[in-house]
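Here comes my example:
=====
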Amino acid sequence: MGKDKSLDNLWLAQTLFDIGAVEFGEFSISHSAAKSPIFINPKKLVSNPMALRVAATLMQQEIELSQSLRRSRISQFEVVAGIPVGGLILSVAYTLQTSTPTIYPRMQQQGSGQRGIEGKFQPGARALIIDDLITTGGSIIETARFLADNDIIVKDAVVLIDRDQGATDYLRQHGYNLMSILKLDVMLNYYHTHSMIKSETYEQCIHYLREHRAPEVPPMDVIPGPDDYGVDASQEH
């Protein structure tokens, strides 16, 4: 059976543009980085139930397809772990779509909430990390290690949007597999070919992404955070 039109990846790219989750201009995403010509905020999906449902369904389809292959790209898992805040929104949507439990890694003390894991899980459980956006992969590695410290096994991560700036290779070097639903360059090509952005804007964004790929992967015992690559972790991962 063919995929419903509303469940097409590019439909989601269009919707993200329409709801203002994709912005063009000059954005300071850290104190040290050059100004970015594009800013992505997938958290805006929280106000669009249909698009959020589509995002969860696309993740489900990609995961199930991968697991059906002889050489699966995604290991089996018992829970999903959403990285706050955008990843947590998506993981809850995925839970409602698939009935797979969500856990919440609380990596910093927040008020009366202590560091630890919110949600029920069995020691040694296998988790799939979910996030909304990835740039270098620092947040996913940090989360995976935090989960491991709490006796939760992580091998894979799924993100809604990959800025394609080196995260896939970076995670692979550290033993994690990354699956993405949308690549930013594909989104930009779509916006350009449908005259949603000017050629100048398109070229500027593509040039920025190429120039700001993550540097060569460091040794295994040196794991830089997102700020080491000039990315503000509070806005983009």
User: Anything to note?
Assistant: The longest strand covers residues 152-162. Strands lie at 22-27, 36-40, 79-82, 102-106, 116-118, 125-134, 152-162, 177-183.
